[in-house]
Amino acid sequence: MDSEANNQSTVPKKGPNDFIFGRVLGDGSFSTVYLAKDIQTGKEFAIKVCEKRHIMREKKQQYVKREKEVLMLLSDKVKTSAPFFVRLYCTFHDHSSLYFVLTRATNGDLLTYLQKAEKFDEEVAQFYTAELVHAVEHMHLLGVVHRDLKPENILLDTHRHILITDFGSAKIIPQPPFLPDADNSSEGTARRSSFVGTAQYVSPEILTDKRSSPASDLWAIGCVLYQMLEGNPPFQARSEYAIFQKILKLEFEYPALFPSVAQDFISKLLVIDSKERLGAQDFGGYPSIKQHRFFQSIDFETLYLKTPPCPSKCRDTVDLVSEASDPSEFLNAEPGLSGQQLSKLLGLHLNDEPSDASRKSAPEPSRETSSSISSTTSVPPPPAKKGLIHFPENEQQLQARLLQQQKTQPQWHNLVDKKLILKQGLIDKRKGLFSRRRMFLLTLGPNLYYVDPSNMVLKGQVPFGLTLKAEPKNFKNFHIHTPGRTYYLEDSEGFALEWCKALEEVRKHYYD
Ligand code: ATP
Fold first, then answer.
1. SS (H, E, C) 194-252
2. To pair with 123 at 20 to 30 A between CA atoms, which of 1, 94, 146, 478?
3. Stretch 318-326: mean pLDDT, rounded?
4. Could you read off the pLDDT of 214-258 as tens digits, one per residue?
5. pLDDT of residue 356
6. CA of 23 to the centre of ligand 1 (A)
7. pTM, rounded to two decimals
8. Whose CA is closest to atom 29 on ligand 1?
9. Which structural domains are found in the chain, ordered by start?
């Protein structure tokens, strides 16, 4: 175990066993974020756990390194007193994972909030844009360009102030001095990088010459403000390519009744030439932005002390979330994130059981513990069936009745040798760099077939056996390990855990 207390050599080093892990707060493309409680202080955090193997496989080392570097810079108390960022308290790692201990954002993200409200009133949009400007100014003064500012990456703290997150795409530009445009910086070859960010918020200069600069974040602020007032971002189309075309032609409209001062402000940020954007020529902060009429009533220095205004649509329904979570979230939990603990948190009990070697002599666990499967199958659940596979006394009759029912949907029935389908669902099966959507069909036998659903062709089977092991990674991703091969699978509907439970239940039924 190795740990690195952030910037504070006197702070004792922490590891996973210093925390009790609670529920999953969310999944990223290569991380899972858990609610966690520091055993010593009782303080709650969000701990982002990135699996090393996955990072290496997806070649995301740079992304993770950059995120840590920027978070450390922004969390450095000596350099920053700005409250509007997710703070990194410490990092550590063990043989399988990297851990980032972060401020817990208790009120979700700005996108979800905005979707609930549909639109923000001008006062609310003005307040959040002011916080965003204040945070971005601070970040740029430290030489950090975010490059992926969007409502999903703006989290909300207990009092609903903003916490900017997701610095994996960020760039650190050399300083001092603070340069208005990083195109003049000496970052050399790193400047011409591949496309970063999200289509709707990406600035034209990133699309044309792949050069980002602090002004690229100013463009994104213009897009986010437009979205707060209108409900949708300014540049929208069916494909990314079409969105890019619109951005390059500055093709967007203000609807009737769009507040005129906000319109003037946005029009000064959504300017094709990055050097002409409001603020791009400022040095040492963004006075020209802060002095715009849109912020007439805002005192930037005391923003954090104010209570953020509520959108009128949410005024009666939105409660502030209390800082501490429900104590029952941590009950019975042991410190750390061992395999056993992980399976408990993901709602499984697979690792509580004996290892493969001792399985045969182990007493049969109660069926009830593994029978609560909510199947994604289109076959109606049998009335008297306990669990996925445990049929009662009149087993034969029930199976026959279910098979009869199944025959009425012959497209799958014939592909699985007329065996009773226990569970089915569309799953993306990854091999190398490519992922293909397959219909997975788990049947009596046991067999796990996968079919190309476009051509209705049986593509293969995952070999079932005593040692088959389904390993959940998060709600969407899971792996199936067989002696000869590991299958990398993603259920975009989020039923990965159900699949793992089902596979384990069937494995036990046949082989234990
Ligand atoms: P990707 O890494 O694929 O771009 P992401 O940025 O959403 O995705 P993470 O930063 O790993 O990935 O976060 C995953 C999810 O976890 C988020 O969408 C959010 O719901 C939740 N989350 C992340 N950080 C926090 C936090 N500090 N407090 C509360 N929830 C968080």
1. CCCCCHHHCCHHHHHCCCCCHHHHHHHHHHHHHHHHHCCCCCCCCCHHHHHHHHHCCCC
2. 146
3. 57
4. 999 999 999 999 999 999 999 999 888 899 999 999 999 999 999
5. 35
6. 14
7. 0.67
8. 105
9. 1-104 (3.30.200.20), 106-321 (1.10.510.10), 349-511 (2.30.29.30)
